[in-house]
């Protein structure tokens, strides 16, 4: 398998608070985001922290999607890492829209056996 | 909780093949790496692909550790993302040593509500 991958790192600000604290919703959004990008979902694990905050991971055949949410700041930090021909931005944009982020910042890294490249 | 985090991205080349294909070993290394860095382990999920390759995630209270291994290339791609006072390099170095990577490339990103900063 080709080791080359695309890794989108994104910070989502001013998200919809109701959505950030709803773990079932978040899980569905992440699975749907993976599917939208054409990925094959292998494992889904989400964890709720007390008093608030959710961390979650979707392992896909093509790498992974992760989130760490900080509802008290209406902020979430996401990673979308895909190998093969998938476009990680499809999943990233789906998540940004679903969490209604009003402001985002992101960059894309090229992963793989070659040098790590940064595309801002 | 403070949103600021440190995210180490690393490519591990020329790893020990026997270790790269041993999922039980890999799980133990990742949990131990998290503990070495002072993290609190919350979820551990590893997935084995046919014919080879392992993807795994450890969700910690302070964010996550992930790996995607490509034994056919003796290569693994890892992410160590920590919030709080933890040093993600402690976990990264532990993993690099445990997989006996002969060559590595890494960079550190500053995550959080502020701008994403890259430290190479």
From TrEMBL, chains A, B:
Pfam families: AdoMet_dc. The record marks 62-63 as: Cleavage (non-hydrolytic). InterPro entries: AdoMetDC_fam_prok, S-AdoMet_deCO2ase_core, S-AdoMet_deCOase_pro-enz. Its EC number is 4.1.1.50. The modification Pyruvic acid (Ser) is found at residue 63. Binds 1 pyruvoyl group covalently per subunit. Keywords: Autocatalytic cleavage, Decarboxylase, Lyase, Polyamine biosynthesis, Pyruvate, S-adenosyl-L-methionine, Schiff base, Spermidine biosynthesis, Zymogen. GO terms for cellular component: cytosol. Is synthesized initially as an inactive proenzyme. Formation of the active enzyme involves a self-maturation process in which the active site pyruvoyl group is generated from an internal serine residue via an autocatalytic post-translational modification. Two non-identical subunits are generated from the proenzyme in this reaction, and the pyruvate is formed at the N-terminus of the alpha chain, which is derived from the carboxyl end of the proenzyme. Pathway: Amine and polyamine biosynthesis; S-adenosylmethioninamine biosynthesis; S-adenosylmethioninamine from S-adenosyl-L-methionine: step 1/1. It catalyses: S-adenosyl-L-methionine + H(+) = S-adenosyl 3-(methylsulfanyl)propylamine + CO2. Transmembrane segments: none annotated. Coiled coil: none annotated. It is an enzyme of class 4 (lyase). Its cofactor is pyruvate. One of its GO terms (biological process) is spermidine biosynthetic process. The active site is at 63 (schiff-base intermediate with substrate), 68 (proton acceptor), 83 (proton donor). GO terms for molecular function: adenosylmethionine decarboxylase activity. HAMAP family: AdoMetDC_1. Heterotetramer of two alpha and two beta chains arranged as a dimer of alpha/beta heterodimers. Catalyzes the decarboxylation of S-adenosylmethionine to S-adenosylmethioninamine (dcAdoMet), the propylamine donor required for the synthesis of the polyamines spermine and spermidine from the diamine putrescine. Belongs to the prokaryotic AdoMetDC family. Type 1 subfamily. This is S-adenosylmethionine decarboxylase proenzyme.
